[in-house]
Amino acid sequence: MYQLWEESGAFTPKHEKGKSPFTIIMPPPNANDPLHIGHAREVSTQDILIRYHRMKGDPTLWLPGADHAGIETQYVYEKKLRKEGKSRFDFDRKELYQKIWDYVQDNKQLMEGQLKRLGASCDWTRNKFTLDEDIVDIVYETFKSLYDDGHVYRGERIVNYCPRCGTNFSELEVDHVEQDGQMYYLDYGLLTIATARPETIFADVAVAVNPKDKRYSKLVGKTAVIPLVKREVPIIADKLVEKEYGTGALKVTPGHDATDFEIGQRHKLPTLSVIDKDGKMTGTPSKYVGLKALTARQEVVDDLKKAGKLVKTKKIRHVVSLCYRDKGQIEPLVSKQWFLKVEPLVKPALKAIANKDVRFVAKKYEKIAKHWLKNLKDWNISRQVIWGIQIPAWRCDSCLSWTITKGEAPSECDKCGKSKLSRDSDTFDTWFSSGQWPFATLMTTKPGDFDYFYPTSVMDPSYDILPFWVIRMLMLGLYRTNKVPFRDVLLHGLVRDKHGVKISKSKGNVVDPIEMIDKYGSDALRVALVWGSLVENDNSLSEENIKAQRNFANKVWNVARFISQDTLQQKSRQPSAKHKDDKEIAEELKAVIKKTTASLDKYRLNEAAEGLYDFVWNVFANEYLEKTKDRREDALPMLTYVLQETLKLLHPFMPFVSEAVWQNCFSNGKKDLLITASWPGK
To answer: Can you list the positions of beta strands (E) in 452-548?
Structure first.
């Protein structure tokens, strides 16, 4: 059936003058794993909208693609290597990149096959990958333009670094989790400080107190003494110090804390580091050098106790920063990275939301988007991984300045003209490239696509990537094209199990979409995934839900069988309704067409599906069919007409069974497909 649709050309729209297109750019699934149940909900939602608009006669484009997914994919591949007794360090850059490329291409094909099994009627002639050469060229052009406009800089700042993944992350990619811990109160001479990280005392450069804290006002300008090393540091005043936290006296360690770094910058303090990129101690008294930070903590505490400098300890509940990939502790480290100034990009995005140029279907997400935009800090867009788009920046060995290009290697330094240049080994944060996905895809598909299909109609990712992706697409889309990348933002909820618990491998409640398709059919899974909740809300799914929708698909099939197929080879025009039962079903059909259309226009997919279920099962099958058993020949024109229109209404939700029935009952061959039939009322 899918092959029949694809070969018909139904998936591939043309540019039709005078007609407004309906366009969805598929949020590209990560090309490192098979599709999960969340993808299945996303695909089902988008395909329902696509099939509906196609039947309405709109030039309808659903552009598919896959995301290389940067650190996500490298992390998955490194786990595979570990099972083979290998690591990323066993290969040079080129070898590792090629191995990941081959792995991704295999998985990408698997993923695309799964999309087809779900019934995704996307245009495979326009299929894109975030590492396609022409997409990479667009990303390079954007970076070069941002750099030339003064929006990109290379700076030494504190970043969130994962020693195990070997890269830094933006603040958005760090999990902030409450944990039990210890607060250590240490004797610093003139005052006592409280810290949860005593292993970093060797990188202290000051002690800070709040300027309004009368307890310490006379100490400002004097010196404190770091225990164990007995190094003196100044006591300073800064508004960022919380008077009520700990003792109200803060050890300032700019090399290992974001707040301390800000204080250090303001007071022009030096920055010292005592933890390296492997998470090990360095630049400390020799007995701690080489120890992992957590191991060193206990050693330092023991030595402080022996030296009489540990005043007391206290159990606390505090927030700890964890790597979102391996859930290990993040180390705030000072590092030179590429940063994007967000302020010039945030203002146009907020203006577009205020002017309704872009509309959030659920108002609650508009508030969240504006909150994130207003609180964004400069975006660290460089990553220390192999897999991804390498940053087009070359450093001059002579003057140490940077030359930025659109990807090509420069012949000489922009600043001094010397020719000895070396390329930065960092890659772009994957969200930087995927943040350009809507315009980058349409600029690199078919001639005229960008002008015709952009801005797109709807963007439909899950709500949990609103800050990672949606607001960044808005920022970069407006910067590059002066237009919003999409008109409507339809964020969908997560899939939960029947008890409302989030589905995850660790909880053992995973629902495999392909397994459910094998067991109950794609149509049953699709309807179950939009049943019972609005798109923007979480959906509770169980095998029982899917089985119930399989029974509904069977009901549709059996209704068609009951109506004599011998007389269904010609499409039926709306028959005259003389009998009161015929009049009633005609009115019921008219009402369900109106309700389904209105619900789909408002993205209330569950209401449309539930209304159709009730109409088919109760009104059409249980009531009208039963009433016409004694006058089948007389009622046959109405039965035929109602079935025909009902199949059209069902098609976006249950494309396979509706098309199969249509082919058996109403089709004159490949040219006469339900997928391209006109929507009822059109």
So the answer is: 456-459, 486-489, 495-496, 539-540
Return the amino acid letter for 541: L
361 DSSP 8-state letter:
S
Residues 514, 530, single domain; the answer is: yes
In terms of Cα–Cα distance, which of 172, 472, 482 is closest to 342?
472
Residue 515 lies in a domain: yes
In the sheet that 22-25 helps form, which strands lie side by side, from edge to edge? Answer: 60-63, 22-25, 456-459, 486-489, 359-360
Query: Do 136 and 182 have their domain in common?
Result: no
Q: Which two tokens stand for residue 677?
A: 């039939």
SS3 track for 272-321: CCCECCCCEECCCCCCCCCCEHHHHHHHHHHHHHHCCCEEEEEEEEEEEE
H or E element that contains 59: none
Q: Kindly state whether residue 630 falls inside one of the protein's structural domains.
A: yes
From 304, 159, 286, 289, select the one nearest 228 (Cα to Cα): 304
**pLDDT tens per residue across span 19-48:** 999 999 999 999 888 899 999 999 999 999
Residues in Cβ contact with 94 at an 8 Å cutoff, skipping those fewer than 6 apart: none
Q: Is the peptide bond before 455 cis (omega within 30 degrees of 0)?
A: yes
Task: Find out whether 58 and 116 touch, Cβ atoms under 8 Å.
Answer: no
Indicate the pTM of the whole model. 0.89
Percent of the chain with pLDDT over 70: 98
